[in-house]
Every structure is written in C-alpha cells, then in structure tokens.
Specification:
Blueprint lengths: L17 E10 L4 E6 L4 H4 L5 E4 L6 E11 L2 E6 L5 H4 L6 E4 L21 E4 L4 E9 L6 E6 L2 E6 L5 E5 L4 E4 L14 E7 L2 H8 L2 H9 L2 E7 L12 E2 L9 E2 L1 H15 L4 E11 L2 H8 L3 E6 L4 E2 L1 H6 L3 E4 L9 H12 L9 H5 L18 E2 L2 E2 L2 H4 L3 H19 L11 H16 L2
Helix pairs in contact: 3-8, 6-8, 11-12
C-alpha cells in the first residue's frame, strides 16, 4: 500500500495502530527530532513524504516527514510545518504510529516485533511461561517482557533462546539458560550511561561478568550519546568557563535533557550519579547501597569539568573512584557498573566468590595459589595442600587479617569482624609487638 495515500483512521482506532518509533529529543534548531526506531525498514518508514501519527495531549495528529537522514543507526527527521526547535520541544517520548496495513509485507517466516505481543511463551517441553506483554530494547538487543506466574520475566530475543517463533499460531518456544525463568522485575538492574564516547563505554560492557549479565537479561544497560541531546548545528556539549581560565566546561542543558529523556522512556531512576574527582569516595559500601536500587543513571564528565548546576539540579549523587586524574568519567562509570553488577543476583555464577571478595566484609582478601606447587623457588603454603578444611579456613582468615593490618589498617576500624577474627587480630598484634 502507498503510505502517502493512506486515509487517517478514526480516533477509536489509535490503539490498533502500530508503533514504529518514539521521539527521543529535539535535534538542532530547525525542528528536527531524533527517533528511536522500532521497525525493520528505517529508511523506508521515515523517508520524506511518509506519514506518521502522534498522540499529544490535545489529540491525534498526522504528520508528514519533510526531511530525513539516518545518524548513528537512528533517524533524524523533520516534519512539514514544524520548522523550529520550539515546535518540537514538547514531543520527547511521543510514539510514532502507522496503520498496521501500511506496513511493508514480509517474507514467510519473518515477523515484526509488535506481532510478538500476545504470543504465548512455552519451553521446549511444553511448559507454559506466560504471554508476551511488550518487546523492548537495550544494549543486549531486543527482549521479550513476559508476564510469568511470579512476575515479569525478560527473555532475550536471541536465536539460541527463542528457537521457534510462530506468529500465526501465536506461540514462541524457548530454550532458556539455567535460572532465566526465575528472574523477575525486582532482580533486573537497569543502568543508563550518558557519555560523549558511547563506543568506548559499549566496548567495556561487551565482555566479562557484565557482558554475561546483559546476555542473561539480568542487567539492562543503555548507553546514550550526549551529543544527541544538543540543539545547535555543531552538537556542542561544552563552552568557555565564566571567570576565565583554561579548558572548557560541560554545559548543563544537554545533561539535563538526557536525564529527562531517560526518565520518560525508561522510568525514574533510583539515583543519578555524576562521576567526578570532587565526589565522595566510591567504596564497597557504596556499591552495596547502589545494588539495592533497580535503576541507576551515570553521567560521564569530560574537559575541565561539569557545570556545577548539574551536580545541584540534575544529579542525586557525586562519586569519585580515587584520588588521581583521568581524561573523563567513562572508565569511572564502568568501574561503578562492574562493582554494583557483581552484587546483583544472577550476574556472578558462584555467589560465594562475591561474598569472599576483597572489601566484601571490609577486609583485604587472603592470598591465592594454584598449580604448580612451586614457582620461582616459592612453594605453596603446606596448609593449602593438607586437605584439612578447618585449618585452611583459619589460615585464610588469619592471612586476610594480617594483610589488611599491614597494608590498609584503617579498614579495620569499620570492618565487620566476628569473635574469632577479633581474637586472631589481637594475636597478630601481640606477635608484632614481640618482633624486634
């Protein structure tokens, strides 16, 4: 069907129309907007002359696309009659819809993601999981939100998990990894990272326990390019400092727009964290505190610094990962994500490894050894080869206390020591006093 000739449906049919994208934010000064697409045919769907429908507070409207280009995988479009940034400033978060019969036809076996909503999900042996209530996206790709018996479950829309999709029969058969179906909404941690170097952050998220957490659906991470939230043709995120001085200062408006867009699309976060050398120290206790939240936004600074009004009016927290200088906040944000993610159930395979990490109880970790039994003239302590589990346990406690006392004694003032550890610490201190 020719989309340009389609007749606007009645207002009662709005809910029967198909979402093909959502307006993210204004772009530039001439009425352009950035769109988060939800269609397989981005260039065709958002071409000049195509029609889309929106539903602002004053009712449905049909808009004609006047200009379009794809930038960073997302359409940047302008509408006829909306020529200035003021005309589109209130559109962030609005859905773009079209009539379902205006969609491009697909080959047999292919489907649009909206067609999955309402399909029944079951395991390969026929056990019911629940209906699909929506399809959403993120750093790990699209996911099915399924209404399970104990709450909502996020299932990655991946070929090795969703092995049989039949939109005609309204059925999806899955081969879920162990533990996936036990995850509900409370166990999914959302992170949103705002940066001018999204590829740098995405690379850091692709591997290790965080990457596996994303693949399993336990972590929901989105990376946002701060320049997408600018309104000038140069996509400026910084300006000269008031009062003079070297360097440039990051402007408050793009960061504020980014957070507002995240709130509109992803829900209100539990914390908006500005990573900054001026913040309070990021410790294991801070990681534990943040892990109890369900949604965290991280703002990455650059240049000489960030406008102070971001700290006072946009961020809820300001954290520093150490007393040294980095080129920007991207590495610091990845540190926070990694430390917090390890505490989210289902991210690390063996929960004991998290419980025994350095700083988990306020102490440094004990020494570790593996094969060979002798290296560079140094042998593995005999107690570890003895097979005596009680002696191994005591040795590890004692060496962790000794290492902490030698290297980071200030940690012992707030460490959660049990009675045995307090006695061991007293013994170590007496030994040190007897040493010449």
């Amino acid at each position: 069907m020719n989309n340009a000739e389609y007749v606007l449906p009645t207002m009662a049919n709005w809910d029967d129309m198909v979402v093909v994208g959502r307006i993210a934010r204004p772009h530039g000064l001439r009425g352009h907007v950035v769109v988060n697409p939800e269609t397989d045919f981005v260039e065709e769907r958002f071409r000049p002359g195509a029609h889309v429908w929106i539903r602002p507070a004053d009712g449905e409207r049909r808009l004609t696309i006047a200009d379009a280009r794809v930038q960073g995988g997302r359409p940047v479009i302008a509408f006829e009659g909306l020529d200035h940034v003021e005309d589109v400033e209130g559109m962030s978060g609005l859905e773009l819809r079209i009539p379902e019969d205006a969609l491009q036809p697909l080959e047999p076996g292919r489907y649009y993601e909206h067609q999955l909503v309402g399909c029944t999900v079951e395991t390969m042996d026929g056990a019911p999981v629940g209906p699909v209530v929506r399809v959403e996206g993120g750093a790990g790709g699209s996911r099915l939100a399924v209404e399970g018996a104990r709450g909502e479950i996020l299932i990655p829309l991946a070929a090795d998990i969703c092995v049989d999709i039949d939109v005609v029969a309204r059925r999806i058969r899955i081969n879920p990894p162990e533990g996936l179906l036990e995850l509900n909404e409370k166990l999914v941690m959302k992170f949103d990272i705002v940066t001018i170097f999204p590829r740098m952050v995405e690379a850091g998220l692709a591997e290790g326990v965080v990457g596996r957490g994303i693949e399993r659906g336990v972590l929901d991470v989105e990376v946002h390019d701060l320049r997408d939230y600018t309104t000038d043709r140069h996509r400026s995120v910084d300006d000269v400092p008031y009062g003079g001085g070297p360097g440039m200062v990051m402007k408050p408006e793009p960061l504020a727009r980014a957070v507002e867009d995240i709130k509109a699309r992803r829900g209100a976060p539990g914390a908006v964290v500005l990573v900054s050398p001026q913040g309070r120290p990021f410790t294991q206790a801070e990681a534990v505190r943040l892990s109890r939240l369900s949604h965290i936004v991280l703002l990455c600074g650059r240049y000489e610094g960030v406008d102070e009004r971001v700290r006072t009016a946009v961020a809820t927290d300001e954290l520093s990962i150490g007393d040294y200088v980095l080129s920007g906040g991207e590495l610091a944000a990845l540190v926070v994500v990694d430390a917090v993610s390890r505490l989210v159930p289902g991210v690390v395979g063996d929960a004991r490894s998290v419980e025994e990490d350095s700083f988990a109880r306020g102490l440094l970790d004990h020494p570790h050894y593996t094969r060979p039994p002798e290296f560079a003239g140094q042998k593995v302590p005999g107690v570890l080869l003895s097979g005596h589990h009680e002696e191994v346990r005591r040795w590890r406690k004692m060496t962790a206390l000794r290492r902490t006392l030698d290297r980071r004694p200030e940690l012992l003032t707030s460490a959660a020591l049990d009675e045995e550890e307090r006695a061991m610490l007293e013994e170590i201190r007496k030994e040190q006093e007897r040493e010449p």
